[in-house]
Amino acid sequence: MKKITLMLAVLVASLGFQACNENKKNGTDSVENAHDANDIKEEKGTGQDDDDNDFAVKAANGGMLELELARLAREKSQSNEVKEFAAMMLTDHQKANEELKALAGRKNITLPARLGNDEQKHVDELAKLTGSEFDKKYVDLMVDDHEEDVKLFKEAADDADDADLKAFAAKTLPTLQKHLEHITTIDKNMK
């Protein structure tokens, strides 16, 4: 009887661990959920290929991050240059995000509904800072983020399989390059 009880306890515990593991996979990270949904659509033949899906998800997640950080910068920055840059981010990335959202809808690509967990950590960290410490961290994040964005959009503009995604990337790339130049100048002026 003790063996049966012990075996049942082990079985229940292992099922509980498996269920916890499944919850980590499904549900908490909007970016992972979008990737999973797109993988299913691709397997069924109703979506885009993996590289195009990945570009759209990364672009949407990056755009949302830049909007969230720009909102914080408009509130918390002590630098007029940083506030002006944040205003430009709000205008340009809101427009690009809306275009991408409409394009994704036409192409049956699922985009993240909210920031991915890693990007949310950046927002949470920045929200705790004030003054020049905030400005420095925001500028550092924007330099790194725009370097990644330029690379991502250049690759998509050159290599995306879907002509509309390729055109979107090519159209948006000059704006991102302008952002990178601007934030790099701000970064140099802060040192």
Fraction of residues in H or I helices: over 70%
At CATH level 2, the architecture is: Up-down Bundle
Beta strand %: under 5%
Quote the CATH topology: Ferritin
| Low-confidence runs of at least 5 consecutive residues | 5-26
How many domains would you count in the coordinates?
Answer: 1
Largest sheet: number of strands, sense, barrel closure: none
Q: Please give the oligomerization state of what you see.
A: single chain
**What is the mean pLDDT?**
87
Helices and strands, in N-to-C order?
HHHHHHH
CATH superfamily: Ferritin, core subunit, four-helix bundle
Which secondary-structure class do the elements indicate?
mainly alpha
- What's the CATH class, please? Mainly Alpha
SS elements, strand count: 0
Looking at the structure, what is the overall shape?
Answer: globular
First and last CA, distance: 73 Å
By DSSP (H or I, 4+ residues per run), the number of helices equals 7
